[in-house]
Amino acid sequence: MKALKNRGLVVLAAGALALAASTTLASTALAAATPPTDAHAALLTPFLDASNTSEAAINQKMADGWVANGWFGDGLLYQRTFVPVGSTSNFTYHITDKNGAPLVNQRVKLRINKGYSTSTSILAVDNVKTKGVDKPPADQATVFHNTDAFGNVTFLVKDLDQPPMGEPQPESWTSKPTISEDGLNDLHSQMLLEIAGEKPDHSVITELHYYIPKTPYVPAATHPTIKLVTPVLDATNSSAVGTNGKLAYAPAGSSVVVVFKVTDDNNAAYPDAAVKLHIGSATLTATSDAMGYVAFTYKDTHAKGEAKPSSMTAPAPTTGAVFAKMVPEITGATDVADTLEIHFYGNAAVAAPSATTISCVKGKTTVKINGVKPSCPKGYKKK
Do the Cβ atoms of 95 and 109 come closer than 8 Å? Predict the structure, then answer.
């Protein structure tokens, strides 16, 4: 089989400014279609459950109350956890329709420091920043990305705060935040993934509290491990290849979000680990986040791939293969890591003409016209 080597366009999720799938708030009018109602969003990274979230039962009861009041769609999750101040966090979601089928190339919105969340943190996502000032009902920032071939989407959230800002480290990861009586040490952010809106979505609210560690983290990383997290592959949508590898299929020309979890010798999350991703002759680098996750986005540029497989679990073709083999590596480690082999099939979809926005002026009146090859109304001149 012949590898893609450098024929695909590879970008780091950490370099979000370069992501072809990302847009900012100014591009709201460019959505290609009406978002589907009854869509579901599941948080893949960070993986959160009752073992690593603050007051899980109390917070979920609160979320159930919001649903009962008609403010959100049913199934809403509200989870609160802790990361060190100044951390990066990879938020990766899986988006499906009401029947559980992945929504591919679906434009979704990350609401950063959501309105009414009293979020106080200063964050950077793509090319937008928050100010840490809650002015409900407005969100402090909004960023749009498109889902990949598996219905996944990722956002890198960077906390720009630094000590002495930050909360005291909690007694445990399940306890409530240690907030002073005057509330001045409260430092948190809140994210909501939105597809069609609060009421028609079945989504998740994630709240991060930024704390000052009692002691510096020193990894025991003689033999760290790297495990594939996203895409989620099993016996129904992939096959085994090699010692620790998975083989999966995606349409030619599609994007694939690839996330790994890095752990140290004690199987604990390994933050700030330097990770390499080898794809053919290309090598990319990124750093694991506060919970050990590292994310990449791969964009295939082939106009035509291999023949469509008989099933998503079919073995790789022996001839005419068009694929990218991805091998992660932690600098200095010798252990074999999980690998991923994506085969691209069929003809790439032809991109629809992109819309643009122009400003038109008539006297003191200015209007904005959005569309493919937009033109000014009669009596108006292009600004």
Answer: no
Place of tokens 């950063």: 112
Q: Which CATH superfamily is domain 225-345 in?
A: Macroglobulin (MG2) domain (2.60.40.1930)
Alpha carbon 210 to chain centroid distance? 20
Percentage of the chain modeled with pLDDT above 70:
89
Domain boundary assignment for the chain: 31-212, 225-345, 354-383
First to last CA, the chain: 54
- Looking at residue 6, its pLDDT comes to 37
- Say which residues have a Cβ less than 8 Å from residue 201's Cβ, sequence separation at least 6: 39, 40, 41, 72, 73, 193, 194, 195
**CATH assignment of 31-212?**
2.60.40.10
The yes-or-no answer to whether 31-212 and 225-345 have a common fold is yes
Could you give the angle at the alpha carbon of 243 between the alpha carbons of 3 and 283, nearest 5°? 40
- Strand locations in 147-219 (E): 152-159, 167-168, 188-194, 204-212
What is the per-residue burial (b if ≥16 Cβ within 10 Å, else e) of 120-152?
A: bbbbbbbebebebebeeeebbbbbbbbbbbbbb
Give residue 29's pLDDT band: very low, low, confident or very high (50, 70, 90): very low
pLDDT in tens, 86-103: 999 999 999 999 999 999
CA 107 – CA 137 distance, rounded (Å): 22
The rounded distance, in Å, linking the Cα atoms of 292 and 302 is 32
